[in-house]
Structures are given as C-alpha cells and as structure tokens.
From TrEMBL:
Keywords noted in UniProt: Hydrolase, Magnesium, Metal-binding
CDD domains: IMPase
Matching InterPro entries: IMPase (IPR033942), Inositol_monoP_metal-BS (IPR020583), Inositol_monophosphatase-like (IPR000760), Inositol_monophosphatase_CS (IPR020550), Inositol_monophosphatase_SuhB (IPR022337)
Cofactor: Mg(2+)
Family to which this protein belongs: Belongs to the inositol monophosphatase superfamily.
Entry-linked Pfam families: Inositol_P (PF00459)
GO molecular function: inositol monophosphate 1-phosphatase activity; metal ion binding
Catalyzed reaction equations: a myo-inositol phosphate + H2O = myo-inositol + phosphate
Protein name according to UniProt: Inositol-1-monophosphatase
Residues binding Mg(2+): 69, 86, 88-89, 215
Length: 263
C-alpha cells in the first residue's frame, strides 16, 4: 500500500468529498440538476464534491494548479504540478441510482501523470497508484489480467454521447469488430473506474473515445502501474492529450487496438 504524504492528502480529500456524495446519493431525487449540453447533466453533488476536493488539496499543496470538470482551470504559482479532477465520474449512473460512480484525482507533473486516485464511495473501493510504486485497491496490489486469448476476453467500452453523429457511426463499426472477436463486452459508465477494472484484471481490455483529461488522468497511471499497456485508441502514446484510450495487458492491448483501428 502507498503511504506517501501526497497519497495521504489525496485519500483524505477523496474520503471527505466521498462522504458528501454518499449523502447525496441517498436522497438523489431531491438534488438540483442542470443540463450542460445534450445528454450532459451536472448536479449539486458534482459541484459540492469538487469544492471539497479543491479546498482540501489546495490547502495541502498551495501553489499547485488545478484542472476541474465543473470549475475549469485554476493556475498555481508552481507551473509544473497540476491536479486534474473529476469530482463525480458517472453522473448519469449516480442520478439513476446506480452505484457505479467515482471521484477521480490525477496529479500531472511536466505533462506526465505521476499519481492517481479513483474512489467509489458507494462500495468504498479506493484505487491508488504512484509512479514506480504500483497500483492498489484498498490494501491489495493490482496486476492486469494474464489472459492471452482475445477470444476469451471480457472487454469494456464507452458508448458515444448524444449529439456526436460521427462518433456513432464509428462506434458501431468498432463495436461489431470487437464483439465478433471477444467473449463479451460491458459498458459501465465511469471511465475512471473502467480503467481501474483493467488495472485490477476484471476487464481484460477497454477502449473509449471522446473523453476528457479528468475522466482518464488517474486511470492511465493505474493501468501502467498494474503492468498494463495504455495508448490512445489509434495507438498513439499520449491518451491524456488525445482523449481516447485503449488498454489491456500487452497481448490483449495489441489485439484490441488492431480491431479498433481497422474498424
Ligand atoms: P461524467 O459522468 O463525469 O460526465 C462515460 O462514457 C464517460 O463519459 C464518463 O467518464 C462520463 O463522465 C463521460 N460523459 C458522460 N456524459 C457525457 C457527455 N454528454 N459528454 C461528454 N462526456 C460525457
Ligand atoms: Ca459530466
Ligand atoms: Ca467524467
Ligand atoms: Ca464528472
């Protein structure tokens, strides 16, 4: 288990914000919800959690910059460190009473994710990773699945959102290509957790397009520190910049990427 000062700060902030999310999840029907765009919702729970995370992290690491889904960028005096935060990844699940959502915190140093945390308050799953230190779920060290045969693999994915007409056509082709070659496919709705499920070996692989940095910053280091491979969905080396991902162990990643790229 990672017990660095930084990870203590990040877990403390996530647990505090998570208590608020648990409370709000218990009375989700009373939450104020607004619409940011087609199929894109934000609730008072997202905003409250983000406020707690910003307060706690900026108190402990004054000077670090922030990039947050709901409040945008906050520049710090320290130009080399930025926290990238999604206070509630899986808002749609949350608002529908499905306990598959998370808080995601990544720390980027000079363009590279050096620490990540993904916390699901509904079941207290706390995933953490630091560069060179491994990835953990609660106290258990994580390792990506060992499966070698794509035909036996369980693959996760993300579906395009309403209003993305090009994305729909492309996704249908990718989905058919992958479905014809794997054991089965899942779609859970929190990209941050999806990448943790690759790190933990629950999914053998995962791909999704049209993501934001806060959806994947923490998940990227989780997969890498669990011994996995992660690229953008076209095989490029910087999924954080591209906003697309393809992940798995070395063999599954390579085979899945070939299907997605060809589609
Ligand atoms: P969110 O719940 O924080 O918005 C699931 O496929 C991923 O896409 C999640 O990380 C989710 O993050 C994000 N997402 C959900 N609805 C979206 C939309 N309308 N536009 C862009 N991203 C969305
Ligand atoms: Ca959102
Ligand atoms: Ca998100
Ligand atoms: Ca969010």
């Amino acid at each position: 288990m990672i017990r660095s000062a930084l990870m203590n700060v990040m877990t403390g902030a996530a647990l505090k914000a998570g208590r608020g999310l648990k409370r709000d999840f218990g009375e989700v029907e009373n939450l104020q919800v607004s619409v940011k765009g087609p199929g894109d919702f934000v609730s008072a729970a997202d905003k409250r959690a983000e406020k707690v995370l910003f307060e706690e992290l900026s108190k402990a690491r004054p000077g670090y910059g922030f990039l947050m889904e709901e409040s945008g960028a906050v520049e710090g005096s320290d130009k080399s460190h930025t926290f990238i935060i999604d206070p509630l990844d899986g808002t749609t699940n949350f608002l529908h009473g499905l306990p598959i959502f998370s808080i995601s915190i990544g720390l980027v140093r000079e363009g590279q994710v050096v620490a990540g945390l993904v916390y699901n308050p509904a079941n207290d799953d706390m995933f953490v990773a630091e560069k060179g230190q491994g990835a953990y779920l609660n106290n258990r060290r994580l390792r990506v699945a060992a499966r070698r045969d794509l035909g036996e693999a369980l693959i996760g994915c993300g579906t395009p959102h309403i209003g993305k007409a090009n994305g729909h056509a492309r996704f249908k082709q990718e989905f058919s290509a992958v479905m014809a070659n794997v054991a089965n496919i899942r779609r859970l709705g929190s990209a941050a957790l999806d990448l943790c499920y690759v790190a933990a070996g629950n999914y053998d692989g995962f791909w999704e397009r049209d993501l934001q940095q806060w959806d994947i910053a923490a998940g990227i280091i989780m997969v890498k520190e669990a011994g996995g491979y992660i690229t953008d969905a076209d095989g490029g080396p910087d999924p954080l910049a591209k906003g697309t991902v393809c992940a798995g162990n070395d063999l599954i990643h390579r085979a899945l990427l070939a299907l997605v790229k060809q589609a």
